[in-house]
Design a protein that fits this description.
alpha/beta; six-stranded parallel β-sheet; two-stranded antiparallel sheet; globular; binds tricarbonodiimidic diamide; hydrolase; Isochorismatase-like_sf
């Protein structure tokens, strides 16, 4: 038992540091760098850079405290057998999922674009979870991993706020986890969606979670260490 108090909205959250996991969502080259999936959809990928530093600070704090760290990657098998046609055919991207691009095939596992950005590269021993959908629970063994580790609180950061971060927090909330978004460690191609996405989580008394930030998270778990 290692209780810590995290400054958060709409209210501070007390959780057991030993039962919390940091989940870093999809900080992949495909979303953050030119030539990947994000850019094919017409987005300005530079907007996601804002989350890199705060994600790094959250990772550093979690690693120092021994907290379970999970990195997720959105992507598909090379034969695209796990990619729904509705996803492949959607919209009018400049390149579709599976098409060749400057970082390899778009959103395909094993390609350079599928890698996590160098600044946030997973360390040996950290969980790297490949997911075919937006939510980290959908068609993955995340629930098994969290259960095996006795986790009841998810600290979530990454991209994008209103898509994969939101979906994962909504999935986690419905499964009974306390879910916290680290707001400055999340980002969107649409600044307004980022802002409102965070508002949606914490409205109505925290209807499906809490919102905090990377520095508060680092302070909370470091203070917990001193008290331990
Ligand atoms: N990781 C994630 O959020 N996947 C997306 O496709 N996000 C977009 O905002 N497009």
């Amino acid at each position: 038992m290692n209780k810590v108090q995290l400054a958060a909205d709409p209210a501070p959250l007390i959780f057991d540091r030993d039962r919390a996991a940091l989940i870093v969502i999809d900080m992949q080259r495909d979303f953050l760098e030119p030539g990947g999936f994000g850019e094919t959809l017409g987005n300005d990928v530079s907007l996601l850079q804002a989350a890199v530093g705060p994600c790094g600070r959250a990772l550093e704090a979690a690693r120092a405290s021994g907290m379970l760290v999970i990195h997720t990657r959105e992507g598909h098998r090379p034969d695209l057998s796990d990619a729904p046609p509705a996803k492949i055919q959607r919209g009018v991207p400049s390149r579709r999922i599976g098409d060749p691009g400057p970082m390899g095939r778009i959103l395909v596992r094993g390609e350079p674009g599928h890698d996590i950005v160098a600044e946030l590269a997973p360390l040996a021993g950290e969980v790297v979870l490949d997911k075919p959908g937006k939510g980290a629970f959908h068609q993955t063994d995340l629930a098994q991993i969290l259960g095996n580790n006795g986790i009841d609180t998810l600290i979530v950061c990454g991209v994008t706020t209103e898509v994969c971060v939101h979906t994962t927090i909504r999935e986690g909330n419905d499964r009974g986890y306390r879910c916290v978004a680290l707001g400055d460690a999340c980002a969107s191609y649409f600044p307004e969606f980022h802002r409102v996405g965070l508002e949606m989580i914490k409205a109505q008394g925290g209807i499906f979670g809490w919102v905090s930030d990377a520095a508060s998270f680092a302070n909370a778990i470091t203070a917990g260490e001193q008290a331990a």
